Amino acid sequence: MSTSRRIKAFAACAAVLAATATTTATATAADPDPLARFHNQHVDWHACALGADDELGQSLDAAGADCADITVPLDYADPGGRTITVAISRLKATDTAHRVGPLLLNDGGPAGPSLHMPLPKSKVMGEVADRYDLIGMDPRFVGRSTPLDCGWDLGSALVRSAGADLAAYREEVAVARELAGRCERAHGDVLPYVTTRNTARDMDVIRAALGENVLSYLGYSYGSYLGEVYTQLFPGRTDRMVLDGVNSPEHYSQTLLRGAEAANEAALRAWASWAAARHGTYGLGATRGEVLATVEHILDAAAEKPLRIGKAYLLDEHVLPSVFIGGLGSDLDERRADLAATVRLLARAADREPVEPSEALAGQLEFLLTGAGAASSSQMTAIICGDVAERRGVGSYWRAVEESRQRSPLAGPLANNITPCEFWDRPAEAPTVLGNDVPALLVNATGDPRTLYAGAEAMREQWSSSRLLTVEGARQHGLYGEYGNACVDERINAYLRTGRLPAHDLTCQA
């Protein structure tokens, strides 16, 4: 962004806040709603399928859903200026006698498309779903909303590891600087507005365009942070709220997994014990220590020379750790088995044997290593950098990597590595600080390696009117409808059905 445009963006802060404050009050003739044309827009519902090859759209259509594009301002400080569209889907309530209203759904990310969410959530909700208009939303610049793609040739911008030594880290500095520069050149005019706060403002436009006074909300992971921001910007606009995998503002940072190193290392050790008990199947080692030694051998081999996976992929020390970390988000046997099969293949590659990736691994590598993941990675990076970018100095990341490496050899160099945010323009608005109390149902596993249990405890303390549903002993990220835990699903459905929070915090066993 040019200096003049950056100054303009900073100067617009006060105007943005003023505009937001205006939208939270009833418009009067003396003080008309500056967003009236967005709040009062006609919603043109239509079929979701975009063509014969659109499986998502066809699935939504088959379920009886419809779709629409909601027009919102690019810059809420300039509602008369440029506009963009936000894609939504709707599965209408059928139990009209007990209709609650819209339940807006967010699958996390940042930059997680959520247009599909009425389909899986209607299944776990059962008859409770009949009381809601289930609303899926692709956040601004994500999925079918107005797009953003920085044209990168990789999809791993925020999940890269620093590498084994200072020379490897310097390569990462160069990559981060180049990615930031390319995104600035491609989309510098819109980057200041690719933020969680603006997505929350879009949510309120959707609420108004649907003709509703309040929204109910279900958000996973990053979606919990989005929900928190919405409640701060638009007090009194929420009805029933479920935050699953709670990401408190204090734990939301530009390095994404910073602070979660120990939880991921613990998840790795737990998985290694699981794999050791199945040595006859996977051959990774008969003890936890032997399995961890296999993992270390793979990481050392990649640091020496990238691992060749099939004919198309070279997996180096910067991207390999994210393959492990990505497999540690669940303690379900199926997910652990997937990681074990991948590690078995990687161990052969580390021994320089020719290997062919599974279909699942090939898709993962295609996303991480090529332009196939560029749009999603661009969007995620733009959101985080637009929210919390902080110039720390190149050397600070390396010091943090080195400090964490001994305690967390896998997660430390990834969680503390430099990101393109170091070279991004500073956010146009300060990060959201919560100063409210919202009655919500907070859901978290004690061993969640992504959104730490401590974050859920912090939000429970912040929101004294809320209740915390803890899943004791689980190393799982994402619980409601995703973990197969009847205790969790039944308690959340009871809240969504009645609107009454439990009298006290609850615990379910893994």
Structural description of this entry:
With 510 residues, this protein is α/β, with parallel strands linked by helices. The protein has a domain at 166-188 and 258-423. Helix content is 42%, strand content 12%. It is built from 18 helices and 11 strands. A 9-stranded mixed beta sheet has the order 1-2-4-3-5-6-9-10-11, with helices on both faces. A two-stranded antiparallel sheet has the order 7-8. A hairpin with a 3-residue loop joins strand 7 (307-309) and strand 8. It starts with a helix and ends with a strand. Residues 1-29 have low confidence and may be disordered.
Q: Using only CA atoms, what is the Rg? A: 23 Å
Percentage of residues assigned to helices: 40-55%
Oligomer: single chain
Alpha-beta classification: alpha/beta
Q: Tell me the span between the first and last alpha carbons.
A: 48 Å
Outline the biggest β-sheet: 9 strands, mixed
Shape designation: globular
Order of helices and strands: HHHEEEHEHHEHEHHHEEHHHHHHEHEHE
Number of strands: 11
- Uncertain runs are 1-29
Tell me the β content: 5-15%
| Mean pLDDT rating | 94
Spatial order of the strands forming the largest sheet: 1-2-4-3-5-6-9-10-11
Number of helices: 18
In short:
The protein has helices at 3-23, 36-39, 55-62, 118-125, 166-187, 196-209, 222-233, 261-276, 279-282, 288-304, 320-326, 333-350, 359-369, 374-388, 394-405, 412-415, 453-462, 486-498, and strands at residues 66-73, 83-91, 101-106, 132-137, 215-220, 238-244, 307-309, 313-315, 441-445, 467-472, 506-509.
